[in-house]
Amino acid sequence: MATERQRAVLELLQRPGNAHCADCGAPGPDWASYTLGVFICLSCSGIHRNIPQVSKVKSVRLDAWEEAQVEFMAAHGNDAARATYESQVPSFYYRPTPSDCHLLREQWIRAKYERQEFTDLDRQEPYSAGYREGFLWKRGRDNGQFLSRKFVLTEREGALKYFNRNDAKEPKAVMKVEHLNATFQPAKIGHPHGLQVTYLKDNSTRNIFVYHEDGKETVDWFNALRAARFHYLQVAFPGASDADLVPKLTRNYLKEGYMEKTGPKQTEGFRKRWFTMDDRRLMYFKDPLDAFARGEVFIGSRESGYTVLDRLPATTQGHHWPHGITIVTPERRFLLACETEAEQRAWLEAFRKVVDRPMLPQEYAVEAHFKHKP
């Protein structure tokens, strides 16, 4: 009988919707919540274990199943659970993928099953109201210390502001939602709830690094920023569908890491710098947590005269790392060196993905106004 029940559970995985994790979409889920009736991956099962009052999990292949549990799974399944627990997910709300950080997946799972935020619109007020204010720990630009700062996000003004003092009348910075991005960076910031917010200041990228001790607060801020971006884009592009706008709300970086670079004359020595590939902007920093980039390079498309080579010119000297990359733009060449061949391959893949993609009309405007700091 136990073998028959095991086989019955495995057969349920073949049903439509059950072949991927109900929470992050990872293929081949090997675990299940037998109180929610969903099939989930190993990573998400660990989060379910932390909410035992809502979800109890078993291995699909290794644990013994009772007849009533098998019947419950058969009566429910991933598609049915989505229809219940995700019936009112806002278009802008970020749905995590298998590669996203633990915090995003945890808060998505808790929002769905524990708080049931997507079955009642009133529970979505923290990120759907169009206005949000509160305190976040923000890293100081010069001293690197995290200090509590008041932040205010207002859709009406299309801006995120922060204040250095609680009683300050004027904000220290005003970040226009039009040019805002947010991405989770727990490893870089050194906190599991670390969020990197970027905006344009004088056409150059400015970074701020924040976190909140409460993971829910950090994710609510993230989704409130996405909601504000969504509202801005709906006004800016009135004919666009939600499917067109949602990918533009926030973006993760294509690649980050250390490389060596030399200056525009290519006669000085190579220096180790932290590089960030943000869509078509390649930025380099002395330190990963610097507020401003030392320089930015626009990388256009092959049709516009941009190419990437997997080597340095034969006459190049002064690099300590052996695996070279040359970025050719219409104006000049950028010489880079990677420590390992694996890093070189990863960077080349990221660069070529951008170069092989035709430029959009608005990207030509960015290229025209782009400033490179040598």
UniProtKB/TrEMBL annotation:
Keywords noted in UniProt: Cytoplasm, GTPase activation, Metal-binding, Repeat, Zinc, Zinc-finger
Domain Arf-GAP: residue ranges: 7-126
Return the SUPFAM superfamilies for the record: ArfGap/RecO-like zinc finger (SSF57863), PH domain-like (SSF50729)
**What is the annotated localization of this protein?**
Cytoplasm
| Superkingdom, taxonomy of origin | Eukaryota
**Which molecular-function annotations from GO does this UniProt entry contain?**
GTPase activator activity; phosphatidylinositol bisphosphate binding; phosphatidylinositol-3,4,5-trisphosphate binding; zinc ion binding
Hydrolase among keywords: no
Domain PH, by residue range, is 129-230, 252-356
Q: Which Pfam families did the record assign? A: ArfGap, PH
Give the record's GO CC terms.
cytoplasm; plasma membrane
Q: What is the protein's given name? A: Arf-GAP with dual PH domain-containing protein 1 isoform X2
